Amino acid sequence: NISFENQVALVTGAASGIGLATAKAFAQAGAAVALADVNGEAARTAADELKAAGFQAVGIRCDVSDMNDVEAMVKQTVSAFGRLDAAFNNAGIQNILAETADTTAEDFDRVTSVNYRGVWACMKHELQYMRQQGSGAIVNCSSLGGLVGAAERASYHGAKHGIHGLTKSAALEYATRNIRVNAVCPGLIWTPMVEQMIANGQKQAMESMVDFIPMRRHGRAEEIANAVLWLCSSASSYVTGQAISVDGGYVMR
Ligand code: NAD
């Protein structure tokens, strides 16, 4: 059983889906948790629910595409709980479906500033604190889309591929300094993001994806949370610079 007793965890995109499930899992494992989300009200509501259940939690409004917000998020986490042991850089958005030739620079920038630069921004400020503390573990949320391409999704998949470069480079930099950096690659996980994709007319695409998953089902957000907690815990003390797929076997096909 993994314990985060006396430890502090920070999760971005923590008001929904995979982030919310991971924040809850950290709290249940004993961590004090900072729940950051661009939807500040939802982040605070989620933190209040955890506090009402007897856990230590704080809700923070943070847009990961804003450098000032990200710097303030790390500061707020440390001022609330005194340290930072684990960070899950999870906030992410979908691109507007379009062939590469038809994608607008505006949509490309919108997606990459959250899914790619946002992960770098979070790591920058988390690592500044962790290297001074002399310990830490970071998990970045990539995707199946960080490992394969897909038509009409170049900006999302390109950004997710980029996360692997950020992860491996930072892992190398801090390998001798007691800080590990890894990535998780969720497959098809049932969250509000997927519900939104279905509402946007992608029901058939989602169903045919399930047919292709060796386990023949979508995953649950808690199944990603379990992998993230393992990667942030001492149970994975010799693992760094890795991208772990949690996808029902999808990517091996
Ligand atoms: P979700 O939409 O349910 O939750 C994402 C959360 O991130 C929301 O609360 C949203 O408000 C927040 N967010 C969006 N932009 C933000 C920003 N700029 N700053 C801070 N927070 C922001 O989505 P989810 O399915 O839980 O996805 C979480 C992560 O998992 C994303 O990075 C996504 O790309 C990745 N992922 C999801 C799946 C899946 O099947 N659901 C598969 C692969 C990867």
Automatic annotation (TrEMBL):
<comment type="similarity">
    <text>Belongs to the short-chain dehydrogenases/reductases (SDR) family.</text>
</comment>
<protein>
    <submittedName>
        <fullName>SDR family oxidoreductase</fullName>
    </submittedName>
</protein>
<dbReference type="GO" id="GO:0016491">
    <property type="term" value="F:oxidoreductase activity"/>
</dbReference>
<keyword id="KW-0614">Plasmid</keyword>
<dbReference type="InterPro" id="IPR002347">
    <property type="entry name" value="SDR_fam"/>
</dbReference>
<keyword id="KW-0560">Oxidoreductase</keyword>
<keyword id="KW-0520">NAD</keyword>
<dbReference type="Pfam" id="PF13561">
    <property type="entry name" value="adh_short_C2"/>
</dbReference>
<feature type="domain" description="Ketoreductase">
    <location>
        <begin position="7"/>
        <end position="193"/>
    </location>
</feature>
<dbReference type="InterPro" id="IPR057326">
    <property type="entry name" value="KR_dom"/>
</dbReference>
<dbReference type="InterPro" id="IPR036291">
    <property type="entry name" value="NAD(P)-bd_dom_sf"/>
</dbReference>
